[in-house]
# Entry
Amino acid sequence: MSSSAATSSIDHHHDHTTTTGIPNKKLLMWAFLASDCMFFGSLISTHLIYRLHPPPGTPSPRDVFDIPLTSFSTFILLMSSLMMALAVNAIQKGNLRSMRFSLLTTVFFGAIFLGCQVFEFTHFISEKHLTITNSILGTTFFTLTGTHGTHVAIGVLWLIMMYVRSFKPADTTSHRFWFLRNLLHVAAVVGLVLSAMFTVLAIVSTLETGGTAGSFASHNFVLVAAFVVTLVASVILARPSGPVQFSEANAIDVESMGLYWHFVDIVWIVIFTAVYLLEYL
# Structure
């Protein structure tokens, strides 16, 4: 009864021990996001200025961009924000299992977005001959979208580490190798995400070139094997091994991570509108 009362008294929005009433972790995240706003604002402004006054020989974005693919990846990123919000709501209610599922789904959607971006960049370079050095469009485009992709990749890694952190045992003295287990868990999930992403890209490449299932298996045996091994390892390491430290009291950590992820999604909405859609108005 006493533990239930202590849990129910947790205020997830205010911290009365601080002078601002805002938890320090959340305040620090807001300060970082404010600086990131100015950083992305300068990159977007630079791209728009050069698009308004393009130097001679600059390729037309309409001949380069693939709107259906970018629209799909935008939708996926928006859905990841929904799952991130569900993860925050779940941990605030003490539902650890639901939080883990929502975090893994957010990781899955983030990996799809990154896979689409890798495919898009590869297509632009190999088919459209647009690189970061051969035109001002390539310079501003790859710098802006590549920086955003880096933010998404950092967010995916952060999500994986938060997911694995939720398995830390409550009594670390009776689990001598818990740190090594969690480290292996992080490596397994990261390997699973990377192998799954590149396996899907390999499947798409095989279909585009008219290849068969046999040719795909022969050329990507190591990749498929890595996917299977990391999947099995991730499932085994995710098996419960007793009470864990992670609880409703850690909701502020998930909420801070959610602020970062929502910010990255909002920035992409601005990029998608300013860089892609404005070219078709």
